[in-house]
Amino acid sequence: MKYIEKLQYITHDLPHLTHIEQTQLACEAGAKWIQYRCLSKTDEELLADINAIAEICDDWGTTLIVTDHIHLNGKADIQGFHIEDVDADFVALRKMVGNDITLGGSANTVENLIRLASEGADYAAFGPYSTTDTKPNDFPLLGIGSYSNGISHLKDLNIELPIIAVGGIKIGDVEDLMETGIHGIAVSNAIYAADDFIEAYQDFYDAVKI
Questions:
Q1: What mean pLDDT is predicted for residues 165-173?
Q2: pLDDT level of residue 92 (50, 70, 90 thresholds)
Q3: Dihedral-angle region of residue 120 (phi above 0 means left; psi in -120 to 50 means alpha; beta otherwise)
Q4: What is the three-state SS of 5-42?
Q5: How far is Cα 150 from Cα 15, in angstroms, rounded to an integer?
Q6: CA-to-CA distance for 5 and 127, rounded, in angstroms?
Q7: In the chain, where are the structural domains located?
Q8: Model-level pTM greater than 0.70?
Q9: 7-209, which class in CATH?
Q10: How confident is the model at residue 136 (pLDDT cuts 50, 70, 90)?
Q11: Rounded Cα gap, residues 125 and 118, in angstroms
């Protein structure tokens, strides 16, 4: 089983912080997992970003995951990919990238989780937990009960799949979420929109690790 960090920071297109600046701040705060999420640039621009981010991650011993753009595999120092399409064929994707690359997928239902596990995904981002403007979508919100039920269902089926809660998570939500048995959480807005990025990251880190 691959290493999956409990606190994952997802970069976004922001007017006040570039993806590279977000990565630098997160790594300075202690981040061990960066998910580079940029759906607005050309391949050339993406690779320029990714190469700069990969250098920072390498300096700090941080895992770099890229959202989608799996065609860039092998063109930069990328440790894995997160695929947002809940219907993506992970059997085909695994054949494409090989066994060493980390592959994560998005899920909104227990059925999504079971399929990801059966097709060899290394983890699942299960959400959205709450309302979020960072990644608008039409999926129903999950809430605490959905995480408890999802984890229980997977255990009944003897399925081991690290579940990462995602979507509108605030610091006050972390304790209840972790008590459901999930592996960890992914955060964006609650960190990058905070008055102090590094302090906010470290608050989440402490909450997740307790």
A1: 97
A2: very high
A3: left
A4: CCEEEECCCCCCCCHHHHHHHHHHCCCCEEEECCCCCC
A5: 36
A6: 17
A7: 7-209
A8: yes
A9: alpha beta
A10: low
A11: 15
